[in-house]
């Protein structure tokens, strides 16, 4: 494993320069500082990238502003669409290489990384296509005037992304932002900046210089100067709720509108008439995909007391069925946590759950994947005998840890489902169609899935949160409007 990963890292270094991408070319940080991005399977560095700060952010925002004013902001939707579709085609030609970078950076099984890279490119393509058909509207408000609206891009959009789905989450922002006619400055997560840097390099000669800029670095040093920048006209952030608060405050100083995609503690409600086997498979799939490091992972299974034993038995079987190990090897279904910090966080919750009085039905141990004893691996875990007041049921663990809680009737199920600060996603398992619709209406969440849990990657389907899970929606047709401002024109006739 060590050798495989060392070889892959060396190969990755040859893919590009992995410098900051500003104004259409590669740059080191002005300070000359760098930081290492690490491979969590073997806990070894992959490569060094510039540690950008305020000075680099200023340069990137200026480059973006120039590109917006000189060319991109005045291009027609058809011209933007054409350029973006050409970029999409270049990205598609480089899927293998992008998947290796994504797999190494986050510790994802390579086949999953490939699927996600594909999805990310799909999102850019989707917005490149639909921007041709979007625009203002005619207002039928008066007989003596022609009143219509124009949808105009903001100018420079500042995007900040987390580490768990680097390319997909980047595409959710830059796809609509660029298609709508804005120029973008992106600050990727410090744990996994490689694919963002590489797709920027792959935009050379395809997108006008300065339209897309990437400044790798840390939150306080590069993220905060971007979200609080007075020349940034729109901020789009994905990350933790507490960081979202900071971002909103910094944007508030310039009255900059924000889109916030934040955390979750999503429930899956299993009614007694459900297909229990399928429900358990669904929960296990959701909480173990990407090693549980998904904002919308189904981390609370709310199960009717009559079917609890059957459900837990099947859930445990599913959680134990993973092939844990080398993410570059075929057949691996479960990789490590992204970093030592994430490992410490997840294992601290495993201890806390036991202290709080819950019982571990399976997992929770550190495991050594064959051939590497340095990776940040933990076994998928299931807590039973838990109640919803426990911290393991209220806080986002962001790891492969499921908490099972029982209920006895519909009202209790809905009360438990809604009794958290978050409201990103939820699921309902039942064979009764009207019960499914009723529960979907009663649960406070941005997405509710019936008899499944994961539909957000459908291009065009809105995704976003209620409550502390954020504001605004990504992935949908309407998202284009979030990256434009509406102007009303009145002409007397
Ligand atoms: P994080 O909030 O720690 O970091 C996210 C990004 O913000 C990083 O790029 C970081 O460098 C930057 N940042 C940190 N402090 C900042 C500041 N003061 N100003 C500006 N930028 C700053 O989150 P994370 O640990 O990278 O990601 C995990 C979190 O993201 C989880 O809570 C997860 O639920 C959430 N998430 C949400 C969605 C969604 O679509 N709702 C998707 C994926 C992840």
TrEMBL record:
Origin superkingdom: Archaea
SUPFAM superfamilies: ALDH-like
Entry keyword Oxidoreductase: yes
Keyword terms of this UniProt record: Oxidoreductase
Keyword Oxidoreductase listed: yes
Stretches with biased composition (Polar residues): 1-13
Active site feature: 261
Ranges of residues in domain Aldehyde dehydrogenase: 30-489
One GO molecular-function entry: oxidoreductase activity, acting on the aldehyde or oxo group of donors, NAD or NADP as acceptor
Gene3D superfamilies for this protein: Aldehyde Dehydrogenase, Chain A, domain 1, Aldehyde Dehydrogenase, Chain A, domain 2
PANTHER family: ALDEHYDE DEHYDROGENASE-RELATED
Similarity comment: Belongs to the aldehyde dehydrogenase family.
Quaternary data: Homotetramer.
Official protein name in the record: Aldehyde dehydrogenase (NAD(+))
Species name: Haladaptatus paucihalophilus DX253
